[in-house]
């Protein structure tokens, strides 16, 4: 698909790149504690429904040609379905998470072991608290990093040192948007969509400077976690509840692919939260065959 970019006049081509994801089935998903404003332990959760919605999401990735690796879910860790929080994978380096709340702490080791066992690169840990791709989003060569609710500022420096990438700190100020991936979605190596009200004044100015062509989400888009999306550069897998954002994406040359993840929204997560991108440059066989 070729579009004309109005500002520059050069043709703008949206291209899909095949991706590799890790996902954890919500076999043990429920809301038995509340660590973000979306979680309400008095609202019943239908685990079978969550599983069937999750299967639809997985099938959407596979039908787009992407590879999905499965992480084993563990009993007693209902939030493990939010695989994005398990770590950050950049090239042949993985940083496994160190969770903010004791309820999720055990997930850090499980994800670290999974990365190591499956050859997804050298696994690093941080001293500072950080929740993987919940707060670290890769945009081209840079990493945007959220802080304010979960990931500590000090972990941004650690991730910069481990990955060798520029890490750009963004301050989150709205409790409902407690992870960066709830307020900002990466569309391709240079394009993002975000919800300005979730960020401090300073961070808003920074985002505006860095991404003057960003798509700006409305309250209604953000309130259904519309920005918690996964893009391959062309196809954007997202909630079916954000029609305004869907139109913005479509008009910008992307192809929205919508799914219903309403049951998993009860835990405060959406499409992106359930999806960890693995960016290892080597192939699986490099690791498995000596
Ligand atoms: N209940 C989980 C928590 O509060 C939801 C995590 C959502 N994940 C994400 N990447 N935003 O930790």
TrEMBL record:
- Coiled-coil region list: none
Going by the entry's taxonomy, the superkingdom of the source organism is recorded as Bacteria
The protein depicted here goes by the name: ornithine aminotransferase
In the UniProt record, the gene name given for this protein reads rocD
Complete-protein stretch covered: 1 to 290 of 698
